[in-house]
């Protein structure tokens, strides 16, 4: 019976090896799941870590939202997550811990064909509420404004409501498209003439769209009010040496520099 069991074990090991090779998944992979905010920044940090440190290959998969990170890490399906909102007291009571990394300014951006680069906060509120529905009223072309919004739980929308003048109780126009992720919002504004949307600021965003100046300030100006804080989360029960090593690197000066080069702002002005 011994040789038979040995052969079974060998066949099983070979099957696992072949499956791993065919799917590109390695046992030592360490995915950081969650929000789309700051994904380019965290990817740069992961790339640098992979080149310089450790055995685990850190990856930054497409967005599943901050809530997805909380569910995955809280449910012990993943070791680390990325969020753009504070943990609730209930989530903390479940053993989740957040590690703030950097501030990401919120940006309001428009399709290149709009021809408008600066608005007041009152004008922005009027656009997103539907009170102004044509760019000609704002110095642009005779072009219908297409509003791209996010769901109410979105981190950028939450920050806009908390900080941007006129947004706390703003009722967003029903004549709008709801994007489910940051990537979806960006793609929709890019592909829709007359579109306006919002999301986390990055230099790449500024190269593809017109990022609006609001009340004379651009997103990275000290007086610009709206920003989210990008943080990593882990669960105390599942934090291991690999997760701890990446957390240490992600909070280092080197990682901070990488994120700042991609549009991040220090946690303390």
Descriptive notes:
The structure is a single chain. The protein has 269 residues and is α/β, with parallel strands linked by helices. It has 2 domains: 2-103 and 229-260, Periplasmic binding protein-like II (D-Maltodextrin-Binding Protein, domain 2); 105-214, Periplasmic binding protein-like II (D-Maltodextrin-Binding Protein, domain 2, 3-Layer(aba) Sandwich). It has 10 helices and 11 strands. The chain has helices at residues 2-23, 39-52, 65-74, 89-93, 121-129, 155-163, 182-191, 203-208, 241-250, 253-260, and strands at residues 30-34, 58-59, 80-83, 96-110, 118-119, 146-150, 176-179, 195-200, 210-211, 213-214, 227-235. The strands form 2 sheets. Strands 1, 2, 3, 4, 6, 7, 8, 9 and 11 form a 9-stranded mixed sheet that branches. A two-stranded parallel ribbon has the order 5-10. Helix 2 (39-52) packs across helix 10 (253-260). The protein starts with a helix and ends in a 9-residue tail after the last helix. Residues 3-27 have low confidence and may be disordered.
* CATH third-level topology of the largest domain: D-Maltodextrin-Binding Protein, domain 2
What gap, in angstroms, lies between the N and C termini? 70 Å
Q: State the order of secondary-structure elements, H for helix, E for strand.
A: HEHEHEHEEHEHEHEHEEEHH
Count every beta strand, where a strand is a DSSP E run of 2 or more residues. Answer: 11
Average pLDDT, all residues:
88
CATH class of the largest domain: Alpha Beta
Class by helix and strand content? alpha/beta
**Percent of residues in β-strands:** 15-25%
> Total helix count?
10
Tell me the overall shape.
elongated
Pfam families: PBP_like_2 (PF12849)
Domain PBP: 28-254
Protein name: Phosphate ABC transporter substrate-binding protein, PhoT family
Signal peptide: 1-27
């Amino acid at each position: 019976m011994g040789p038979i069991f040995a052969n079974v074990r060998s066949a099983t090991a070979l099957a696992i090896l072949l499956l791993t090779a065919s799917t590109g998944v390695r046992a030592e992979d360490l995915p950081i799941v969650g929000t789309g905010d700051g994904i380019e920044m965290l990817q740069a940090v992961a790339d640098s870590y992979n080149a310089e440190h450790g055995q685990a290959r850190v990856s930054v998969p497409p967005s599943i939202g901050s809530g997805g990170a909380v569910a995955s890490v809280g449910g012990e399906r993943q070791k680390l997550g990325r969020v753009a909102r504070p943990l609730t007291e209930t989530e903390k009571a479940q053993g989740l811990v957040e590690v703030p990394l950097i501030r990401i300014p919120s940006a309001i951006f428009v399709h290149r064909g709009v021809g408008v680069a600066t608005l007041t906060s009152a004008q922005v509120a009027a656009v997103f509420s539907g009170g102004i529905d044509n760019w000609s009223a704002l110095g642009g072309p005779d072009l219908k404004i297409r509003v791209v919004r996010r769901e109410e739980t979105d981190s950028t929308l939450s920050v806009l409501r908390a900080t941007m003048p006129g947004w706390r109780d703003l009722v967003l126009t029903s004549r709008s498209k709801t994007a489910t992720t940051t990537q979806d919002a960006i793609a929709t504004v890019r592909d829709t003439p007359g579109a306006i949307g919002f999301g986390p600021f990055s230099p790449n965003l500024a190269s593809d769209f017109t990022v609006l100046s609001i009340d004379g300030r651009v997103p990275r100006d000290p007086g610009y009010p709206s920003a989210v804080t990008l943080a990593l989360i882990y669960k105390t029960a599942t934090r291991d040496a690999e997760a701890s090593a990446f957390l240490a690197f992600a909070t280092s000066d080197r990682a901070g520099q990488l994120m700042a080069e991609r549009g991040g702002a220090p946690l303390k002005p």
